[in-house]
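[Q] Does anyone have a clean C-alpha cell version of this?
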Amino acid sequence: MTESRPLTGYAAINDSATNKATAFTREERERLGLSGLLPYAQSSPEQQMTRALNSMRRKGSDIEKFIYLNALQGRNERLYYQLVIANIVEIMPLIYTPTVGQACKEFAHIFRQPKGFYITPEDKGNIRRMLDNWPGEDVRVIVITDGQRILGLGDLGANGMGIPIGKLALYVGCAGIDPQHCMPVMFDVGTNSEEVLADPLYLGYPHKRLEGEAYEALMAEFVEAVQDKYPGALIQFEDFLTPNAYKLMEISRDKVLCFNDDIQGTAAVTLAGVYASTRISKNDFKDLRIMFLGAGSAATGIGDLMVSAFMEQGLTEQQAVQRLWYVDSNGLVVKSRTGLRPHIKPYAHDHEPLEFIEAINAIKPHVLIGATGAPGTFSKEVVEAMSTLNDRPAIFALSNPTSRAECTAEQAYQWSGGKAIFTSGSPFDAVDYNGKTLKPGQGNNAYIFPGIGLGALACSTSSISDEMFLSSARSLADMVSEENLSTATLYPPLTDIREASLNIATALAEKAYEQGLAQAPKPDDLKAFIANQMYDATY
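[A] Here you go.
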C-alpha cells in the first residue's frame, strides 16, 4: 500500500484535518507550497487558542458562540479540539447542552456547512452504495438519530442533526476518539411537526414520518450496510421516541455493536450519581427506595440498570423491582391501570392509584429522579415533601436543556433548607446557601458514553453488557472525592472528564475480557494501552 502524499497549497489549508493555519512552520510553508498564502507571522498553538477564545467570547450570545465554534471545527479541526479540551467547562455547554437545543431548533436557519450523513426513505436499496460517498474509510463510531425526540424539545426532524454532531465532538474531546473515525448520521424519515414542515428554510425530508415496517426495514438496511462497510463500528442510538428506541435495540443488538445512550448511557450516569449520593445520605444502596417522575425510555432504562445494581447487592429481581416506583402524567403507575407499554409493565406495582405528592408521602422515596422534559414539575411542595421524609433527599432533575429541568438548583436548595443533594442534566451555577457553597453536579451522559465507546473499541468487544454499564457507573462514582461531596456534588469536575473516560474505558474493557466478549488480545497494561489510543489534538 502506497503512503498518501501530503496535501499542498490551498488544499492543505482548506482541509480541516490537516490545516494548521498560521502555525505552519517556515519549513512546512516551503515544503507544502504555502509561501505567500499565509501572513508572515508564525503563531504558536497557544497564540492561536488565545485568538480563538477572544473571538468566541466577543460573540453576544451562546448561539453565536456555537456558530463560531462550529465554523472553527470546519476549518481547523485540531485547533477546535485543543480549545475544547483546554476549556471544557466553558465550551461543553456551548457545543452540547444546553446550547445545542437552541442550535437544533434553529438548525435550518444557521446552516453553514454540510456535516454528517443523511438517509431518507427515497434512499431505500441504495444505503450501502451511498456509504461509499463518505470520505472516511475507517469509521469506528456512528451516532444516529431520527430527530423525533430531541432532548426535551420533541420532534425536530432533520434539525436534530445537531445532536449526533455534538455527541461526536464530545467523543473526541472527552475520550480521545479520532475525529476521522466519527460519523454523525441523520435518519431523516420525515417529521410530524407542522411547525417544522411549514418552515420555508427546512432542510429535511418534507413529509410526515415514515412508520411501522417500512421504518424498521430502512433502519435494518442501514445497520446491515454499516456491518459491510465498517465492520466492528459502534452505533450509538440517540433521541429516538421510546417505542422506537426499544424496538431498534432489539433489532440491532445481536447484529451490530451498539447501545442506546438515552436508555443505557443515562442509566449509567444516573446510577453513578445515586451511588455517590449514599456517601452523603449514609443510606445503604440496597435499602434505597427510588421514585421516577416520567416513564419514558430514559426513566425505565435507569430502572433496568438499577435492578441489575440491586441484584448485584444480593436482592432478588422481584425485590429489586419493588424498590423502584414510577409516576407519569396519570399518576402512580400501578397494575390496575390498562394500556401500559411493555417497558413500564414490570414496574407497575399492586397499589392504589395516587397523584404525585400522594405517592411521595405513601412510598417515602429516598431518591427522586425527574426524566419528564416538563419544566417546573418538582414544585416547592414536592421538594418540601422529600425534605420532610429525608435528612438528605437526593433530587435528580435530569431533563435537558436547562429550560426543561424539573426544578433549578437554587429552588432545590432553598425549598429543602439546604438539605437537598441535587443534580441536573444541564449545568447550573453554584449556590451560596446560609454561608455554605453548594455545587450541583451535572448528571450529563458526557461522563459516560465517550468512555463506553473508547473502551468498547479498545478491546473490540462484540457487545456491551449490563455488567459493563455497571462497571462504568462504579468507576465514575469512585472518582467523586470527599471535597466534591462536601459541596453536595455527585460527579467529578468536568476538568477531569478525560481521566474519567479513561477509567471508564478501562473498567469496561476489563469486564469485557472477564465475560469473554473482548476479541482483541489483552495487553499487559490495559489502561496504558487505552491511553495510548487517545487522539492528540496538538500539532
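[Q] Thanks! Anything notable?
[A] Residues 447-533 form a domain with the Rossmann fold fold (CATH 3.40.50.10380).
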